[in-house]
Amino acid sequence: MVSEYEKIKLLLKNKSKNNNKEDLARLRKEIPTFECTPGCHDCCGPVTTSAEEMSRLPYKTDAEHEAALNEYNCVHLGPKGCTVYKERPLICRLFGTTPKMPCPNDRRPEQMIDVKVEGQIHHYIRNTRQVLV
Questions:
Q1: Prediction pTM value
Q2: 81 - beta bridge partners?
Q3: What does each C-alpha distance from 84 to 58, 74, 76, 95 come to in angstroms?
Q4: CA–CA gap between residue 35 and residue 18 (Å, rounded)
Q5: For the purposes of burial, counting CB atoms within 10 Å of the CB of 53, is it exposed (0-12), middle (13-18) or buried (19 or more)?
Q6: Three-state DSSP string of 3-37
Q7: Does residue 7 register a pLDDT over 80?
Q8: Among 9, 13, 18, 48, which lies 20 to 30 A Cα-Cα from 37?
Q9: 81-82 and 77-78 as β-strands: parallel, antiparallel, unpaired?
Q10: Which of 117, 97, 80 minimizes the C-alpha distance to 35?
Q11: For 58-100, what is each residue's pLDDT tens digit?
């Protein structure tokens, strides 16, 4: 027999998963966009991301991960740039939109990210299980 405590714990766990999906969708919409310098991949290094975001990305083998890490690159960086651009993690979307993570080529959106939204993104990252992309 499942205790009342276990039922509540399971309910909160499932609610948390749904909230993570909703939070992720909302935060992604609130990050401003800008056009990168063609051919530049200076901010495309190894990053961590939430398990939720990772589940949206295509599977890569251990050998592919190791080869990318040996070059200090993201495993999803291809010859023409990010191969998962539409599904890239929050941390990747944040590059260049905040003075704390400036674009090395001085590119930026017309309006930088709202400080409150940036804080919410860092809160999301701190409070979700992170895995190496």
A1: 0.82
A2: 78
A3: 8, 11, 6, 15
A4: 32
A5: buried
A6: CHHHHHHHHHHHHHHHHHHHHHHHHHHHCCCCCCC
A7: no
A8: 48
A9: antiparallel
A10: 97
A11: 999 999 999 999 999 999 999 989 999 999 999 999 999 999 9
Calculate helix-pair angle for 4-30, 115-126, nearest 10 degrees.
140
The predicted pLDDT at position 21 comes to 87
User: What domain count does the chain have?
Assistant: 1
Quickly tell me which residue has 């992309």 as its tokens.
133
- Tokens representing 50? 């939430």
DSSP 3-state percent helix, strand, coil across the chain (nearest 5): 45, 10, 45
Q: Which residues form the domain of 58?
A: 4-132
pLDDT of amino acid 53:
94
Instruction: Report the distance separating Cα 55 and Cα 59, nearest Å.
Output: 9
